[in-house]
Write a structure and sequence with these properties.
globular, Rossmann fold, single chain, alpha/beta
Length: 237
């Protein structure tokens, strides 16, 4: 059976995102460390080479097909988990200045070991999104924000949009039935000083549907946001 990195290299080629020899090696290391650490902690329920290649590596990489951040852009991956989509983006675009944010420190321990093995610089931040976005070093500081299946769109927007710098873009990765969510989130997007830039729908090779929503900061962020996590969950914008 081919390994996840080898399978992904073929999928990336077909998607118009060919890998260099170094990138292929980095994805091989990523897949191996993910499997090794997953035996010690629950990083992902997706464990097969085929699943990792498609639903983690390719799914993350496809962001670059629809919205490529400017060279040297600052990027924060909110609720990064096992590093998706942030670390694949950093492998493919080493010029990006990446921050990985997660509320569980054990995940960041894994990511620190992974980044060292990959030879990639990145910042890791142990915090809840709504708490980090209140800190001046993170609030409205990022050119590009990513998050994958973290929460419903109205909630996700309040978690993520406060990180956006003026003109910055939030790429929200969602499943196939998220159009209604986006409609419900339009009020939140406006209140948080942003507007919808675009929406893309596509399918992975297995047929799984995906949606990518692109939201840009076009105005100021009111001081009241983000609210406390319990308020966000109890009363979405």
């Amino acid at each position: 059976m081919s390994g996840a990195a080898e399978l992904f290299a073929g999928l990336a080629e077909k998607a118009g995102l060919p890998l260099s020899p170094r990138q292929k090696e980095q994805f091989r290391i990523y897949a191996e460390l993910l499997a090794e650490w997953n035996r010690k902690m629950n990083l992902t329920a997706i464990r097969t080479p085929e699943g990792i290649a498609e639903k983690h590596f390719l799914d993350s990489a496809l962001i670059l097909k629809f919205c490529s951040p400017p060279k040297g852009a600052s990027v924060v991956d909110v609720g990064t988990g096992a590093g998706f989509p942030g670390v694949p983006l950093k492998i493919l675009r080493p010029d990006l200045r990446l921050t990985l944010l997660d509320s569980l420190n054990k995940r960041l321990v894994f990511l620190s070991a992974l980044l060292e093995a990959l030879g990639l610089p990145a910042q890791t931040v142990h915090a809840r999104a709504e708490e980090a976005a209140r800190r001046k070093e993170h609030r409205m500081r990022y050119d590009f924000v990513t998050a994958r299946a973290v929460a419903a769109m109205p909630v996700l927007c309040e978690y993520c949009l406060p990180f956006l710098a003026p003109g910055g873009v939030f790429a929200a990765m969602k499943g196939p039935d998220a159009a209604a969510e986006l409609s419900r989130a339009r009020r939140a997007i406006g209140l948080l000083g942003c507007s919808v830039l675009g929406a893309k729908t596509y399918s992975l090779p297995s047929g799984d549907g995906r949606s990518l929503f692109l939201i840009r900061r076009t105005g100021p962020l009111p001081a009241a946001y983000p609210r406390h996590g319990s308020k966000i969950a109890r009363s979405p914008l």
